[in-house]
Amino acid sequence: MMEVPGSGRGPAPCGETPGITGLVLELLLRIAACLTWHQACTLWSALPLATSAPSVDKAWASLVAALVDMRGHDEVFLADVSTIQEAALYRPLIKAYSELYPSVIHRALSVRYPPNRMLEHIFATDDALLLRLLIETHCRLSLDGNALSTAIDRRACRCVALLLAEASPNSTAACGTRVHLDLVGSSSKTLAGRKAIEIYNKSQSEASQPSNRSVGMVDFGRFPQRLLWRAAATRDDSIAILVLHHLLEAAKAMAGTADRREAAEAKVRRWAACCGAAYGSVALLRFCGAALADDCSRVSFQASADGSGPFQEDILFEESPIAVVAAEKGHIQALEEMVRSGVDMMMCTSRGVAALDAVRLSMRHSAALRAQLEVVILAPPGSQRASGSRPSSRLSSKAAVGNRGDGDGLALALQAAAAASAAFRLMGGHFEALPPLEAAIKRGDVIGLRSMLRRGAKLEQRDLMTAVNSGDLEMLAIVQAECSAGAGLAEYRRMMKQTSAQIRADRKAFVLPPARHEELSRQSVASLHRPSSSSSSSALRRAGESFLHSPTSGSKLPPI
Hints:
Layout (H helix, E strand, L loop, with lengths): L21 H12 L3 H9 L10 H16 L3 H9 L7 H10 L1 H8 L9 H7 L2 H11 L2 E4 H9 L3 H11 L11 E4 L35 E2 L5 H9 L3 H18 L3 H22 L2 H7 L9 E6 L11 E7 H8 L2 H9 L14 H6 L6 H11 L16 H9 L4 H20 L9 H7 L3 H9 L6 H10 L2 H14 L2 H20 L5 H15 L10 H10 L12
Parallel strand pairs: 1-2, 3-4
Antiparallel strand pairs: 4-5
């Protein structure tokens, strides 16, 4: 049998510990040997031997002696004891330690440590009892956003719940809020020099005007929204909902009027939509309710990478449909929730990328995941269709899209997506070189271009240059007309000046051989006497195509 440490003899007689035998004491000491110092103290304080006056000192002395014999003096634990030495739970321990090892405990208690030094250990073990004891001992605990982020990253759900409850403006504590969260001083740096990963969701035009459903860019590197971003990254809906409700409650408390409260709620809903789509949290998406298909249907947000856990890459989405975000990240359940909420799966980014394009052109999804995502995206709005069922053929997928109300427009959208996928394959899988909007201009796809413009795509100055380089004058005229209609007069003039300057610069850098000049002149003159046909292009269009796509070496304009 195990000796009772500190006694130098066998098991303690029954008379020394009333109500408990030496065998039971030995078993309890064996259990305590498997616990941390704090856990052993909590266990000992709940035993009858720790509350019976005749045996209190001997019971705690046995615990201290046993743990010291096995582990030695734990300096970190002794520093914790110094921090909470006023707590009633640790007074018997301090007394027993003083009797057995007076010099050690007196040296430890002579130094007072700030309470925040215990938080790392508390969050690592999710010890809500010790955290509550720390708060009660010091009456007030001040935390910055980074400390709370650490608790969230550790998935310390009980500690997060306690901290947010104590920091709530509606706290029921007699002395008011006992936890103060300083989120203003914790704001991280802006994303200077960010390298975008989702570059196809970012508009390159700095002067492009936001849509009627867009608000400013949400930076999840800043507090307080960073808390929700980190909570969503844990994939633990209980923590995410705790943080979400705290942010909503705090936003309402800071807003004075009803209009400001409504605006604050809308801002928190947008945060929830972004986090839910990026990390596939169905709980956060459900919180948005009907706003998911309305105010939150198009989002702009960014988050920086810190090299840990799920934060391995920078994220940037600008004016992107929320369905594109979920499709790019491969979250099936999130897309199903969006379909049930009536989110338009055919909305596209400024560069023409819809959810279906994001799935088909993504290099990170497996073939099986890509097939499941396509089924969900092509499901009728509001349906409960399971993601496990797959269409039997491409025809069934097209039929699913054709039966979604606006059959003609959606069928054209599907055709445009299929053409973009084909162009993507022809480009060798290099999506960055050929966004869907630019691909439609290059191949002269007027129907696909207008379909993308109706679904949220925006023409920019570089699209004008793409139309010029294509040699298709009909497409150039259409692009010019769409730019004139979609942009203001000043913006349209700026775009045309930039295009003209680019054409002149390219022309100076391009020298055509004299023989090629004569050949093009003969072709132009001959085309003037050739009878026109409704199925063929104009002479000017053919001359432009011949000029720009000549097989002669060095006769092609440099790419833009």
